[in-house]
Design goal:
This protein is α/β, with parallel strands linked by helices. It contains 13 helices and 10 strands. α1 crosses α12 and α2 crosses α6.
């Protein structure tokens, strides 16, 4: 594996002495992606884990590109610095946005803004008008943020981390995986192109929407393209909700959550099936190996955050999510680090099937 380590007989990657190699799977979720920032930051700080591959979608794709670039130019600390600078630019890009919480909201420590009149008006506008109508010049401040945060020529030139960024081909309905040599600002934006907010991103004549519709994120590139058997999924979208949504906004939000989790659930079913066959001795091919699944999540928190908060780029909110991500990663490391390369630390059947 070059400087990433060696591979044992089961196909599990072993990093340098004392370091274990894993793959990351990063979900999308707008500003909620700051939770994944915190998870990545804590894993980088720990120093006992290195990333062989990262499969990511939407905000996850942005975290992935920035992390890989930071690792390329400055190692672990370079990646941590790059992520912090990226999210600060995200916050600074919309200092006067009406979708930010008011001082009163902050006083109450209220992060959900679903009753915010500005959000309700914005939500209504996106249901009546398409981005081709309300944004005819295709303005997207994220492009400037990405280009200020990542030198994409440098990122493409060196494969310090294997990147797999997911997008959905609008014309064919198939998943598109952008790999290292294809990573451009447009590829990252395509992965996060919500069709109600942005026009389809065209790359080589093909239009793309958010990758979450077909892979949030896709796990198969990590299985086929990486040697490490360990896949850590950083969850952003809640899998379950106890209450039945009743407002139009809550119903649409739940539909998006189910849609954006569906591809992951299907892949988990396939992984569970193959794992069962391997454990029962039904599959003896050397091409088949156990995939070890791990998860870091804050499901209770994400359930309480309204859909409007996915557009909340207030710095206090972003760092709040980052800090929770760091706490969850710290807890995971404390409880599960020794199981890397040995066993899954999430019950696949109970969680996904």
């Amino acid at each position: 594996m070059d400087d990433q380590g060696s591979v044992d007989g089961r196909g599990a990657a072993k990093g340098r002495a004392g370091v274990k190699s894993i793959n990351l799977a990063l979900q999308g979720g707008g500003a909620h992606g700051a939770f994944a920032w915190g998870v990545i930051d804590r894993l980088l700080e720990d120093g006992r884990i290195e990333f062989e591959g990262i499969s990511a979608t939407s905000a996850g794709a942005m975290n992935a590109a920035v992390t890989a670039y930071g690792l390329t130019v400055g190692g672990r600390e370079g990646a941590r610095t790059a992520l912090a600078a990226f999210w600060r630019r995200i916050s600074d890009a919309a200092p006067l946005s009406p979708l930010r919480p008011s001082p009163f909201d902050k006083l109450l420590n209220r992060h959900s803004m679903d009753s915010n009149p500005a959000f309700l008006f914005f939500d209504l506008m996106t249901r009546v008008l398409s981005p081709y109508q309300f944004n005819p010049f295709d303005f997207n401040p994220l492009r400037d943020v990405l280009e200020a945060s990542v030198d994409f020529e440098v990122l493409r030139a060196r494969n310090v981390v294997k990147l797999f960024l997911c997008a959905t081909n609008v014309r064919t309905g198939k998943v598109k995986i952008f790999e290292n040599a294809e990573i451009t600002p447009s590829a990252v934006l395509a992965s996060g192109c919500l069709p109600f907010l942005f026009r389809a991103v065209e790359i080589d004549g093909e239009p793309y929407w958010d990758g979450g519709y077909m892979g949030n994120p896709a796990i198969f590139p990590l299985i086929y393209g990486c040697q490490s058997a360990d896949v850590m999924i950083v969850h952003i979208n809640p899998i379950t909700r106890d209450a039945v949504p009743q407002t139009a906004t809550d119903i649409l939000n739940r539909l998006n959550e189910i849609s954006f989790n569906s591809s992951l659930m299907r892949e988990m079913r396939a992984i569970a099936f193959v794992t069962k066959l391997i454990e029962e001795g039904e599959l003896k091919s050397k091409n088949m190996r156990r995939i070890l699944i791990h998860a870091v999540e804050a499901e209770a928190l994400m359930k309480d955050l309204g859909v409007a908060s996915k557009l909340n780029t207030d710095w206090d909110f972003l760092t709040h999510l980052r800090d929770i991500g760091r706490e969850r990663a710290e807890a995971w490391l404390r409880q599960n680090f020794e199981k890397l390369g040995v066993d899954s630390t999430v019950d696949i059947r109970a969680t996904y099937l």
